[in-house]
Write the structure tokens for this entry.
Amino acid sequence: MKKLNWGLIGAGDIVRKRVAPAINSLESCELVAVSRNQAELAASFAKQFGAKKWFADWHELLKDEETQAVYIATPVFLHKAQTIAAAENGKHVLCEKPMALNAKDCEEMIAACRANNVKLGIAYYRRFFPVIGRIKEILASNELGKISVAQMNAFEFFDPKPEHPRFWLLEKEKSGGGPMMDFGCHRLEVLTNLFGQVSQVKSVVGNAVFERETEDTAIASLKFESGVFANVTVTHAAFEAKDTLEIFGTKGTISVPVLNKETIIIKTENGERTEIHPNHANVHQPLIADFTNAVLTGKEPQITGETGKIIAELEDEIYKEGIARE
């Protein structure tokens, strides 16, 4: 059986909990190398997950001839340089979200991968949620009639100190923005997957509670070419966590109480029903499997660099529009 040899650039929590275990559990994958800027942590990670090689400098990993593909799991501001360097070294790239600080950087990443004939994918793993697939089926069936409004809320309380390992998310030059960049991008990907191209963007972006470089709260209002209106509301400043999706049509409603879980509630004139569509135990595994298959078969991954650029273009508009209104 053909195998894809993987290297990891960055080895934080997501890679430790999801990405490395996904690679190790797939017969079509082999984890061969890892890089992390603290040498002792790179070495211990490699030992824990069975990687043969470890590097403190990611440039050295990219020179490794055995490594065929890399998963880039570093802060956003590094994505462009690392993706372009990987492509120039002949490595296929699966990059964490958001793809880059802006759409222009995304274009450069796409161009580099094309020029070097390597695949580029972005880690919008919610594309593979069974709940999302089921919602697409329901929408296509016309059970809900014509869709008028969709609403997504993503709330958490996040106020890290400067010594916190994720404090970079509050540094605009490194993250590009606050919660709208960090996890709002996932919600934008879900909505564009469900409803298609956006024709109009309105937004409010700012700080409701904290004084920081990045926003703590943002609201984006979208109009799709299909006619659907949608709101995405995100915040770092809420006591109660939220991760909801609601879709309202002329004949019915879909409610997803927690997007990362398995339940959807459908209400129509025929009554109310609840459906259960469990995620894979490791939500990154379908993403890794799809990208690996794309490389091994010469096909395109389901989530390409173009997908990442579309979301970046929306983010650019949301920040331009929202900050201008302050």
Remarks:
- The chain has two domains: 4-125+283-302, 130-278.
- Residues 130-278 form a domain with the Dihydrodipicolinate Reductase; domain 2 fold (CATH 3.30.360.10).
